[in-house]
Design a protein that fits this description.
With 164 residues, the chain is of the alpha+beta class. It has 4 helices and 8 strands.
Length: 164
């Protein structure tokens, strides 16, 4: 990703703690499930923790393309395409471990069922109506309501596409 797009992506990801991870199952259908973000690297790589016995692991082995969908209340949305890699690295597990993960892994960070999923973003699209963007959006919405003209969704601070 271009440096400015990568910076924007990291800023956006800082606003989320979970994502819906969409994978492709063997019959070419899509499957989504909520996943807690374990870590976001400076490079933009997004890390998740999973069980080796989870269906999503077989799905990623079959097709490494994933789609991540993020939502924060009604003010921030992010849709991201990426490539997933399964990582079996005990040190890395220790580095990104959060005590809240013990709910799924009672054995803690040394649980032998743990596998990491690293997602390298390929492209993303966002809609941000937080802070001043919300004021701008409310103004555009009110204007649209009064004039009967649909508001513009041009790219800018409220909406944008991030590419590699």
């Amino acid at each position: 990703m271009k440096p400015e797009d990568l910076k924007k992506l990291r800023e956006l990801l800082a606003g989320f703690s979970t994502a819906m991870m969409v994978t492709r199952i063997a019959d070419d259908h899509l499957r989504a499930r909520p996943m807690a973000l374990a870590q976001v690297e400076e490079s933009g790589t997004i890390w998740f923790i999973s069980g080796t016995d989870s269906g999503k692991i077989d799905e990623i082995v079959h097709d490494t393309r994933v789609h991540l969908v993020f939502q924060k209340e009604h003010s921030l949305y992010l849709s991201l395409n990426g490539v997933a890699t399964l990582v079996h690295d005990r040190k890395r597990v220790g580095d990104i471990w959060k005590e809240s993960f013990r709910v799924w892994f009672p054995g803690g960070k040394d649980d032998s069922n743990i596998v990491l999923i690293a997602v390298e973003p390929q492209d993303a699209e966002f809609w941000d109506s937080q802070g001043w963007n919300k004021v701008s959006y409310l103004f555009k919405a009110a204007k649209a309501y009064v004039t009967g003209v649909t508001p513009s969704t041009e790219k800018g601070s409220e909406h944008g596409v991030l590419t590699s």
